[in-house]
Amino acid sequence: MNKQDKYLLGLDIGGSSIKFGYGCCPKSLQYFDKVELQHKSLSYMQRACSQILSIVDSQVGLSAIRAIGIGTCGTIDSRSGLIVGVNPNLKFWVNLPPSAILPPGLKLPVAWDNDANLMCLAEATLSCPQGKVLGITVGSGIGCGYVQGGEVYHGAHGYAMELGHVTAVYQGLPCNCGRRGCVEAYASLEGIKRRMVNELGLEESPDLPALLRHRHSDPRLERLIREGEEHLSLGVANLIVTLDPDLVVFGGGLMDAGLYAIADLRRRIRELLPELNSAQVKVEQAKEGNKAGVLGAMILAGQMIKTESE
């Protein structure tokens, strides 16, 4: 098998599962699946990764893999390559490189980045390759990435674009990061569920399907969702004014499930923008859906190989 014919393997580590897929290039994703994380621990995550590698080995052989890309929740320090700070949805997953999930004897090139960065990279590469693209992931938390001309913007230290932890309400609700009033405390699934327990008096929060079923019959729940949508819209509008992107894409599990409608977000964001920005920016739902993180990881792996060969 020629090097050009070998596969790129993408892994997307989330709070509840690891999605994975492989293909010769992101436009030809040949396999996609996920392994659920039944337990949140490093050892279980490593076992899940071994299961993924066994699946890939049985289908095409690990010798057919050219490189691996990994996307993960959490902030990655650009100097050390470690996940740093607080990782609310995987609390144990800090002070480690994302490659820690791989078997130590695996002799393959590995690249990694934040999952929202890679979602944005995939959408930008496949939909707006020469443009400036802002990507928002809405799920258990709120993620954000920014891509210019095919390159992820990381800031000086790798900490850029943490929209979920921009302050939406001064001295507001506690966030899983340890601060108060973050966008994530209001607009994410975990934030809404926590508010349902604390403010609506529920003994335990419902899962996402139950939340979606009851939102229109419970005006109190609908109010919480609309407040989350408002804080998210305002945060994104502020980023648009700051960055002046061509395109904003919304992805993640809550968008796929329909908790927030893209038409409502687009309308509200435009209302909050100056006329000049509103006239230029496009606001769309991610075209690649829940595959975007895996595709972005594959693109990152391909970029690494290209750079090393030059």
Fourth-tier CATH superfamily name of the largest domain? ATPase, nucleotide binding domain
Strand order of the largest sheet: 3-2-1-4-7
Q: What is the C-level CATH assignment of the largest domain?
A: Alpha Beta
Q: Helix-strand pattern, N to C?
A: EEEHEEEEHEEEHHHHEHHHEH
Helix content: 25-40%
Q: How would you state the average pLDDT, rounded? A: 93
Extended strand count: 12
What would you report as the Rg, rounded to the nearest angstrom? 19 Å
The tally of domains stands at 2
What is the terminal separation in angstroms? 21 Å
Explain the overall architecture.
It is a single chain. The protein has 310 residues and is of the alpha/beta class. The protein has two domains: 3-119 and 290-309, Nucleotidyltransferase, domain 5 (2-Layer Sandwich), CATH 3.30.420.40; 129-286, ATPase, nucleotide binding domain (Nucleotidyltransferase, domain 5, 2-Layer Sandwich), CATH 3.30.420. Helix content is 39%, strand content 21%. It has helices at 42-59, 115-127, 183-187, 189-200, 208-214, 219-243, 253-257, 262-272, 275-280, 292-309, and strands at residues 7-13, 17-23, 29-36, 65-72, 75-76, 83-84, 110-114, 132-138, 142-148, 151-152, 247-251, 282-285. A five-stranded mixed β-sheet has the order 3-2-1-4-7, sandwiched between helices. A five-stranded mixed β-sheet has the order 10-9-8-11-12, with helices on both faces. Strands 5-6 form a two-stranded antiparallel sheet. α2 packs across α10 and α4 runs antiparallel to α6. The mean pLDDT is 93.
Question: Which key features would you list for this structure?
Answer:
single chain, 310 residues, alpha/beta, Nucleotidyltransferase, domain 5, five-stranded mixed beta sheet, 12 strands, 21% strand, globular
